[in-house]
Amino acid sequence: MRPFRYHRPAGVAEAVALVEAAPNAAYLAGGTNLVDLMKLGVQRPDLLVDVNRLALDTVDPLPDGGLRIGATVRNSDLAAHPLVRQHHPLLSRALLAGASGQLRNMATTAGNLLQRTRCVYFQDTGRACNKREPGTGCAARHGQNRDLAILDWSEACVATHPSDLAVALVALDAVVEAYEPDGHRDVPLIELHRSPGAHPERETTLAPGALITAVRVPPLPFATRSTYLKVRDRASFAFAVGSVAAALDLEGDTVRDVRLAYGAVAHRPWRAYRAEGALRGRRFTAELAAHAADVELAAARPLRHNAFKIPLIRNLTVRALTDLAAAVGR
C-alpha cells in the first residue's frame, strides 16, 4: 500500500470540496471494501477524506411514512432497527445475508451501495480489466465468468454489482440524496448505477466528488410482506450467485401490486419491471410467478459458465413470491 494523505472534514461541504480538488481522492467510512482494494493495489488514492464524524448516522421516520437512512448508518444497526424490521423486512434480510457480523458492524449504507465489483479479474492487477484500467480489455469475457452477468453486459465488461442492500432498495424505489460540487441532488437508486457500455470504469451517475448523504425509502404499505432470498456458494461470508428481493400485495388471490429486483445478474441492481407487469392484475399461482420470471429473463445472454443463473433466478422468483402469498392472512 503506497503512502496517502488523510483528512477529517468538519462538514459535508468541506468534504466534497476536498475530493473535488483532488481527483485521486476517496471518501473513507467503514473502509471494508476500499481498504482491501488499496492493499491489492487496485485503488491508489492520494487522499482519504474521513466522513465518519459527519452527522449522517441516523435512521429517521418521514412524515409520509417513509424512512430516511443516513449514509454512515452501519449495516448491523440498520438491519436491527425496529422501523426497518417492521416496515421493510427485505432490507433487514438483505443486510443480514451480506458479509460477516464483524464487517456489518463497520460497513455503511452509502459504502454498501458504492461497492466495487468482486470480479476476480478486476481484483488482479496482472490481468486485463477495462473497469480497473480502461482500454486493456476484459479477461472475464472469455475467462472464468461463472459469477458474472447474464443481463445488460457489454463487450467491455461482464462484471456484476455485489451489493445485497442495493437490490432491496431498488425494489423499494429508494432515492439517494447526494451533495455534489454544484449542490444537493436527488437520484433515484435505479438511476445511480450505470450499465457498462464502452466505459465500465464510470460506475455511477454521480458527479466527480459527490458524497452520498442519505437514502430515502418511500412509503410502501405492502413492504411489510417482503423478503430477500440469496443463493451463495457457502452459508455465510459469500457474495450472491443470484438473489431476489420481493414484495407482494394480494387482493384475494389477485396480484394488486408487486415489487421485484434481482442481484448478481448485471452491472447494476436489476429491477424486474417486465416480470412485475406480467404479474399485476392476474390470479397468483406458482406457474404465473415462473412465467413472469421467464418474461424478465428472456433478454438474458448467458456467458460460457453461467447459464445456470437463468433457472436459478426463475426458481428464486417462484419461491419468494409463493412464500409471500402463503403468508398473506396469517
Q: Which blocks of ≥5 consecutive residues have pLDDT under 50? A: none
- Could you say which overall geometry the principal axes of the C-alpha atoms support? globular
As laid out across the biggest beta sheet, the strand order is: 4-5-8-6-7
Secondary-structure class: alpha+beta
> Rg from C-alpha positions?
20 Å
What portion of residues belong to β-strands?
A: 15-25%
Distance between the termini: 54 Å
Question: Which series of helices and strands comes N to C?
Answer: EHEHEEEHHHHHHHEEEEEEEHHH
What is the count of helical runs?
12
Largest sheet: 5 strands, antiparallel
User: Could you give the count of β-strands?
Assistant: 12
Overall pLDDT confidence: 96
**Helix share bin:** 25-40%
Task: Describe the structure in your own words.
It is a single chain. This protein is α+β, with helices and mostly antiparallel strands. The chain is 30% helix and 20% strand. It contains twelve helices and twelve strands. The strands form three sheets. It has a five-stranded antiparallel beta sheet, covered by helices on one side. Strands 9-10-11-12 form a four-stranded antiparallel beta sheet. β2, α2 and β3 form a beta-alpha-beta unit. α5 packs antiparallel against α9. It is globular and about 60 Å long. The mean pLDDT is 96.
Please describe the structure with a list of short key phrases separated by commas or semicolons.
four-stranded antiparallel beta sheet; globular; 330 residues; five-stranded antiparallel beta sheet
